[in-house]
Specification:
168 residues, mainly beta, Immunoglobulin-like, eight-stranded antiparallel beta barrel, 36% strand, binds copper (II) ion
């Protein structure tokens, strides 16, 4: 029986099935934090055995690397400042979670998304030790500048895009 259930779960991964599936999925729609900005994006989150898989696509963003993190609060007000600091349940230093692991990075440390000359960019990353319920209702923040992984939050500057993570 256990084998059968595992097998069905795997099928769901391939078919990306929705309600009733073993996998939980969530999403966020990123919008600009300031009037007149064309920043937009979509985020899809999928719980997997290795962690929370996050797929991000942005448009209308200046070319180059931009820090992107899950922040503590679920608000995009005040040009994104109301989202507060990084989601950091382990009180860890700032880092790159997929590479550094949960003891050496914040739960929301996704690093950078690279934006092309046409203003689009994509990022796929898996956050080990993070469940969808941990981040549901929190804000995904896209920054003005590159995350240089300096302490305490990577010096990524202003918050140009923001969206609240919801369970799908
Ligand atoms: Cu941030």
């Amino acid at each position: 029986m256990t084998r059968l259930r595992r097998g069905m779960g795997l099928v769901c991964v391939m078919a990306a099935c929705g309600a009733g599936a073993l996998l939980r999925t969530g999403h966020a729609t990123l919008g600009a934090t300031t009037p007149g900005s064309a920043v937009a994006g979509t985020v899809t989150l999928t719980e997997q055995a290795e962690g929370l898989h996050v797929a991000i696509r942005v448009t209308g963003v200046a070319a180059g690397d931009h820090g992107i993190h899950i922040h503590e609060q679920g608000s995009c007000a005040e040009a994104g400042l109301a989202a507060g600091g990084h989601f950091n349940p382990a009180q860890a230093p700032h880092g790159l979670l997929p590479q550094d692991g949960p003891h050496k990075a914040h739960g929301g440390d996704l690093g950078n998304i690279t934006v092309q000359a046409d203003g689009t960019g994509t990022l796929e990353a898996t956050l080990p030790g993070v469940l969808l319920k941990d981040v549901t209702g929190r804000a995904m923040i896209l920054h003005e500048k590159r995350d240089d992984f300096g302490q305490p939050t990577g010096n990524a500057g202003g918050r140009i895009g923001c969206g609240i993570i919801e369970e799908a």
